[in-house]
Amino acid sequence: MLALIALRNLFRNKRRTLLSLVIVSVGVVGLLLTAGFVRNSFDGLRDAVIQGGLGHLEVAPASDTAAAASPADRSGSPPTLREWRALRATIEGRPRVRAAGAVIQFTGVATNGEHSAALIGLAVEPDRERRMGMATRLRSGADLPEKETPAGEERVLLGVGLARALAAAQGDTIAVMAATPDGSLNAVDMTVAGVFTTGFQELDSRILKTQVATGQRLLGTDLVNSLIVCLADTSATMTEETDLRRAFAGNAQPLSVLDWETRAPFYRQVRALYSGIFAFLGTIVMVLVVLSISNTMLMSVLERVREFGTLLAIGTSRAQVALLLMFEALWLALFGVIAGSALGLALVEVINLLKIDMPPPPGAADPIQLTLTVVPTDVLAICAFMTVILAGAAVPPIWRVLRLRIVDALGHV
């Protein structure tokens, strides 16, 4: 009965009720759009990290990863992973694994006789990269061939910046020099197959990509640095990591299994930054809504002092009067979150359909598309958050009513 009376009370002053609903709805819309942007940023960055070459998991010698989990910090380390073909076959036989590919990382110098540039080399297995969904973002030319090229026919992909520094294009021949594990210097002539981008300008100015077999000839070894593992489902990463560690616990060469988050510490930093921004915006919305709704309800209470005094005089308990005001706040919350959710989801669809391009982030090479991702749990969490805020906003008016003296209330003008 109190809930129905509270609902009728809201329609006694339609203008004030409409203003309150607008405030709540705008708050819900703001939080939904922000949550959609943050979630899409998290998901997009996660997929970019995984599909950009890190994969879901990395299997590497424990001696290599003990001091540095990030592959970038191990780029100068010589390959030490033995029996990697047998390990790869074992990993690829697991049901959750899509594919596993060997990787060699090295540093060196590239030259075409006229220009020279320092490089970060990455040797991969192109056929397994494609099975893992790691597409090379070509700017010109062709990708690396899937089949292993014989000696004397080595192919290489150059980062956009490195190709510019060497003044090299598809079909040109460059010499790549690197130090072998025993400390000597070796060089291999390679034909430029194409030019690609990683999406990061600084890395594009140094990156070079070739086949594992070519990297092994350059370094004079049959070993690799690690195996990159790609799973069919990202949510199974932690489970598969635990299973692989258990499976390789008794391996002759001690191995470590690292997940993609451990090898990409910047992801956690970006996630913490965006989470802080979302919390900050949520706090602002909370303060604005609490102040606005509290002020609106206080005005309503001041206009209805004699009404509350009459209710108390005829035997209505103070708890019932307080509950009446709380129901009014909850009705505002219900209608406000429904309207705000509908409007917010509609705006999300419109923004996604417009395909708006935003400027590249600092250090990035390509613009990013403004896309919002909203899941049901986000909508429910925001609705619950706004309901709690509205309930909190009702506390000051309720406290004022609880302190009313019946005689003073009846004589209030």
Number of helices: 16
Proportion of helical residues: 40-55%
Tally of distinct domains: 2
Distance, first to last CA: 28 Å
Care to count the β-strands?
Answer: 12
Structural class designation: alpha+beta
Short key terms for the protein model shown above:
single chain; 413 residues; alpha+beta; 2 domains; elongated
Description:
With 413 residues, the protein is of the alpha+beta class. Strands 2-3-8-5-7-6 form a six-stranded mixed beta barrel. The chain has helices at 2-10, 14-54, 62-65, 84-92, 126-131, 160-166, 201-204, 212-219, 237-247, 260-263, 265-303, 305-313, 318-354, 376-393, 395-402, 406-410, and strands spanning 57-61, 97-111, 116-124, 137-141, 155-159, 173-179, 185-197, 207-211, 226-231, 255-259, 356-358, 368-370. 53% of the residues lie in helices and 20% in strands. The mean pLDDT is 86. The protein folds into two domains: 2-49 and 267-410, no CATH class; 71-263, no CATH class. β2 (97-111) and β3 form a beta hairpin.
